[in-house]
Amino acid sequence: MVIIRIAKKITISLGAVISFNFCYAESIILQSTTSTKNSGFYDYVLPMIKEDTGITVNVVAVGTGQAIKNAQRCDGDVLLVHSKAAEEKFVSDGYGVKRFDLMFNDFVIVGPSDDPANITGSTDVSAALNSIASQQTPFASRGDNSGTHKAERELWKISGIDTSNSTGIWYLETGSGMGATLNIAVGKAAYVLSDRATWIKFANKQDFKIHVQGDKRLFNQYGITLINPIKCPNVKSKAGQKFVRWLLSDKGQSSIESYTVGGNQLFFPNAQ
Length: 272
What we know:
Oligomer: single chain
Structural class: alpha/beta
Helix content: 40-55%
CATH topology of the largest domain: D-Maltodextrin-Binding Protein, domain 2
Shape: globular
Number of domains: 2
Mean pLDDT: 92
CATH architecture of the largest domain: 3-Layer(aba) Sandwich
Number of strands: 12
Distance between the termini: 63 Å
Radius of gyration: 22 Å
């Protein structure tokens, strides 16, 4: 009888501990980009964060523009995207607490290996875009107000090219994420601007390759921002801040640096 009672007490105690831990398990919603998701970065880093902090991170991977809209609707706790001007406006409008630089990589122009626009090896993105436009070779645009789309539109602008009259002719807007747009580009033998991480991870390259890289205007900065609990009272600010601090910490930055695919580093940490 004594043994049975002790066993019952142990069972009850263990059940209480399990129940306590379950009730107090932390989870947050991260509004983020398709590029960080498609690159496999979250599959790599989130288990480490869970082990160190106990926080489960649920990622909503959409274009940067949509991620910011979602965050403005208070759907989420942390924002991790790549359009610095839009992120800074998000903070100045009161929706974010503070934005931090987190990591960077770059954009590249990829396309079919026969290179109909003759841009292979160029480090001048404006010259490359002018060649594509003048020859009206197909170009696939995400067309989704994502960070990549915003960067692409700015590159056309600074190159002095208006694509508005070419939509549906040689300029093809997909309205899709990076992976889907790359697939469409491959199917239509079209050039496309991609973040390097998604391109490296992309499995359906076929005869496509990088044609343009190395121009400083192709720099691609990622930032991280805690959504403001004053604007959005349901924000899990303590757990969100813990997540942000982990990524900005020495361990977080080292983890970003160590993530590779096929021997290629995908992101470069630069938190201050």
